[in-house]
């Protein structure tokens, strides 16, 4: 069984979407993500029951980093600990 919430080989497996890249400005208002002041159209893959209502940012993503988030935003470390990630 491949359940993303369970340990996988001693590590947690998490699948994330790249939301923004270096130089982009990310802001989250009531769980809605904006990149460079344009609302992300994520209703097709972030269901209402999984959308958080958090606010965050704005933050410019530094060089060499990406901003990633999971689809289960109210139950995902990607939104509980937002910020750029080196890839």
Secondary structure blueprint with pairings:
Layout: E1 7-8, E2 11-12, E3 17-21, E4 25-29, E5 32-35, E6 38-39, E7 56-60, E8 65-69, H1 77-80, E9 85-86
Antiparallel strand pairs: 1-2, 3-8, 4-5, 4-7, 5-6, 8-9
Structural class: mainly beta
Describe the biggest sheet? 4 strands, antiparallel
Low-pLDDT regions: 1-9
Strand content: 35-45%
Give the full name of the CATH homologous superfamily: Umud Fragment, subunit A
User: How many strand units?
Assistant: 9
Q: How many structural domains can be distinguished in the coordinates? A: 1
Question: What is the CATH class name?
Answer: Mainly Beta
Radius of gyration: 13 Å
N/C terminus separation: 27 Å
Gross geometry: globular
Number of helices: 1
Strand order of the main beta sheet, please? 6-5-4-7
CATH topology, which one?
Answer: Umud Fragment, subunit A
Helix content bin: under 10%
Order of helices and strands: EEEEEEEEHE
Task: State the main characteristics.
single chain, 37% strand, four-stranded antiparallel sheet, globular, 87 residues, three-stranded antiparallel sheet, Umud Fragment, subunit A, mainly beta, 5% helix, 1 helix
